[in-house]
Amino acid sequence: MKLSRIVLTGVAGIMSLSLAACGGGANSDGGGSKTVFKLAFNQTEKHPQYLAGVALGEKLEEATDGRYSVRVYPNEQLGNQADVMQNVSNGTVDMAWTAAGIMEGYNPDFIVFNLPYVFDSIEAQTAVMDGSEALDELFTSLEDSKSLTVLAGVSAGVRNIYNSKGPIRTPQDLRGLKLRVQQSESQVTMIEAMGAIASPMSQGDVYSAIQTGVLDGAENNESVYDGLKHSEVAKYYSYTKHLIIPDYLLMNSDTLYGMSDEDRQALLDLIPEVRKIANDGLVDYCAESIEHAKSIGAAFNDDVDTAAFKALVQPMVQSAIADSPLRQTLYASIESANEATA
Ligand code: GCU
Fold first, then answer.
1. 97-108: per-residue pLDDT in tens?
2. 87 C-alpha vs ligand 1 centroid, how far in Å?
3. From the CB of 42, is ligand 1 less than 6 Å away?
């Protein structure tokens, strides 16, 4: 049976199990009294996940009497998300914000939250990410094999398609368009079912790929569209609303369990606040991003046949959850959250 070392998302406290630490990529101040966790982030300092990471550092320092803090490295300074995941796993980076697609390569059960048109709203997604036993099982599933703990799932907005050619209204409009997707099988299957050609790639390569015509566009929320300047090179943003997919805050498990019970609990107690900063901040950041993108000539199109796109991806949703009790439980939690927040 899997050793689930802590209860991450529930109200219950930690189990008193702590493993030997290797300390990983964290910096100590030389006297050994202060450890600064490195948190990798692939977007800018304006993004609420950056701000949430900074707040985590400040509050952790306060809560642990200066024993621990966090330094956030934005703009892919520590590498792209796929490479960073490996470095969190091997302990040379302590923490990272990461896109959900990449998690599937480590444990296919993560696919459930990456499926198109399954969440009816960000509220439903947030309710599921608030916690459950099944979520704890998923979030601790990579501790023993990869030394990866998911500390939190946050909103990454609603994803829509943008491109340099024209507005998208129907699946027909996607024919022949080459679009960047996250590096995961589900995202490739999804975009191809919707009618386009999928090109999995890390986020930092997207701008120049669109600029040079290697790609026609991509799909993402408005903050990535404008924050990473894709709005300069792909003027048409269409509300396909195909995905409400989370981002995750990851931590190296050995580093987490190497903390004293008290310090680890202080860190875990801060997670709800971190989620709130990231979630609330994204709503405002997306609104600002829309305004800025419009001011430089981007066109937002809401006239989209979302029912047609949804019909095309239904087979992939059904087959993704078949044959896995955990995925079915997680999927059921999405359905209940959809109903509860309707
Ligand atoms: C999300 C996320 C990013 C990530 C991106 C993607 O929106 O916030 O960190 O880069 O998706 O890779 O598509």
1. 999 999 999 999
2. 18
3. yes
